[in-house]
Amino acid sequence: MFHSNTEQMIAYWTARATPGRAPSRASVQPADFRHLMPQVFVLGREGRGQYPFRLAGGFVGDLHRRDLRGVGALALWSELDRLRLQTALEEVRLRPEPLVAHAEVQTDGASLPMEVLFAPLVAHDGGPDRYLGLYQPLSMVARLMGRPALELSVRRLRRAGAANEEAPRVRLAAIGGRRVA
Fold it and tell me: Measured over all CA atoms, what is the biggest interatomic distance in the chain, rounded to whole angstroms?
């Protein structure tokens, strides 16, 4: 289970997607989720690992204390988590479904648990080239006491689509009592 706002955005994305294909950018109408716009962002994709912010709602910008347009999204994440997140973003391009990062916002004081949604969008020419996203705090933002986010760290990545339910599961195999796979 995700926060109700995250669930709402996943449902919105799913309603516009077709089996095995992300929804088109043109099918996303910000007026449909206007109450969440401060928490919404859109990332572009210029190549593997290059995901600049195209749009960032007021809450997203305020949390980082800067205008994020053009800033590479991976730069906001801890160095240890960047490759893991990049790999996950590329995977959901190939197998379109929403991805939710259970994250921790790190400041020079308190931290804040948060869900960060990434949902791929398709350009008119067919390839996923954007991600619709949402920052959903899981506790009171006031606990940060006005401190800006220094970095985000991944606690767990979860796919939120039907494609994930169909994914093969890892099984443990043993021969003669010895684990082999």
Answer: 61
What domains can you pick out in the chain, each with its CATH number? Answer: 4-179 (3.30.450.20)
| pLDDT tens string 112-133 | 999 999 999 998 766 678 999 9
Q: What is the dihedral of CA 155, 107, 44, 154, to 10 degrees?
A: -10
19 alpha-carbon distance from chain centroid: 20
Distance between CA atoms of residues 97 and 118, nearest Å: 9
- Predicted confidence (pLDDT) at residue 23 exceeds the cutoff of 70: yes
- The answer for 124, left when phi > 0, alpha when psi is -120 to 50, beta otherwise, is alpha
What the block records as the tokens of 90 is 């590329």
pLDDT, mean over the chain: 90
Answer for the pair 36, 137: CB distance below 8 angstroms, yes or no.
Answer: no
pTM of the shown model? 0.87
pLDDT, tens digit, 9 for 90 and up, residues 41-71: 999 999 999 999 999 999 999 999 999 999 9
Which alpha helices (H) appear in the chain, and where do they start and end? 4-16, 58-64, 79-94, 162-165
Pairing type for strands 151-159 and 174-175 reads unpaired
Which one-letter DSSP state was computed for residue 26?
G
